[in-house]
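Researcher: Go.
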Amino acid sequence: MYQVFVVEDELLIRQSIRNVIESMPGPFAFCGEASDGEMALSMMQDLMPDIVITDIRMPFLDGFELIRHAKAMMPWLKIIILSGYGDFESAQKAISLGVDQYLLKPIRSAELTRVIQDMAHQIDEGKTKSTLPRGYDQDEVQHALRQHFMQQLLFGGLNTATLLERARALELDIVRPYYQLVLFSFSQEEFDYQTSRFAIQNLLQELNMPLYYFNESNQLTVLCDGQDTDSLSEKVYQFINILRHELKELCPTITTVVAGVVQRLSGVCGAYNTAADLLKKVYGVSVGQVVDVNDTAQIAAEMIELDDPFGEEFQQRLQYASAKDVPELVDSVLASPEGSRFNSMLMRYYALIDILRIASQQIARATPGVDAKDIATRLSSQHNIFAASGRLDSFRQTAVELLQQATSMKQENPANIKYSHVISRAEKYVAENYCDPNISLISVAKYVGLSSAHFSTVFSQTLGRSFINYLTAMRIERAKELLATTNLKLSTIAMEIGYNEPNYFSHVFRKLEGITPKEYRNRMSLNADQ
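Model: Structure:
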């Protein structure tokens, strides 16, 4: 699939070009658009297009500056200029920047289609390097192209045939019976990016392991392959030991996750997602350790066989306790012989889920007409169960807060929560449907059985903010989570949270957070685990 990005300040022209691309036969996809060069550059870093069609004269950052910066970051780009100016100087400058086609407006659909197809043909023939502007180091270009290929392999979007074609163009022999990923996270306090990255690249070159990807400034993913599972496992763990040994002076603390073995290139993306999720869970809990995804299944199985320390006996004591008694009850569990099991993050996570259930059920018993599931939804939105599982102290604090909420409800008057059930249903409905771009105050009011005016008043009085502010905050919080924990494109995140227009999503995000989504992602990357 060839991803095409359009940069043009005239809306009608952008729409016309988009129509041409979307109507083209073959593996062509319109992946995004921008009205100026500055916005385009930010979006292109996430979308990673193959072909860019751009105007020259645009606000903020003109087409020539866009091309110069974009080529530096993405040397493989094929550039098509559409311009209303046919002067020799502009054409000469375009050629010097490595532009592949210079077309004058107005452009006919058939001609644009032909040019885009020619660009794709050049990509297939592996002519990217020959069209690069002078001054680019060929090793750096090759590295950038392989990084781009690995990104496509890890994050999906291409079929196996296309992956094999691009691997062949990069002279990569990747056809093997088995594949396995290894993810490394380097301690940011110890990791010198430039020095360590150079050492890692040299090591991987010596070991003939060309497929690797620097996800973040301190994270690395390497693809290993083998003829059978036993030899592949031996190769993987030998490589881990070598890398940790070679970097022990530069970065002694390296947290490692070994993904599951897959037999198809199309399975690499799923294996990566599972391993990346596990890396987030174990980082801060098992820092500097090597964790295999298969280990987690074994740990979970062992937990099922254990007695529940927050079981029937604990719940009976809780029934007669007041809010001030809760810390002592929780501490008695942690100090018991079974308390040592809470040294495991997974055990803390499962225990908090159980405590959330206990608290929800007790609150429901104290408030007639309120469903325990609705209460659980509200409590989940108030407490980040996963984050609280990361450390023992945060686990204790969250457990105490949940149980204190449950015990304090016994003294409350149900009349004070007249609309609690309605709001709980509304919150649950929004939590399940906020990604629907058509959700509105009217649709939610209809769902809970109130007029829109009545629902708006009840909602704002109960939660202290308007419905639209509540919905927007929920969407942006989910966006922040995706920006911090995934490498999804901004356009994908926008769709994920209910915005059809990526530019509008960026506008709302910046209005609430004071920075762009891209800046937020970079900041979270720099501040991770500090």
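Model: The beta strands are 2-7, 28-34, 51-54, 78-83, 101-104, 178-186, 212-216, 219-226, 254-258, 290-292.
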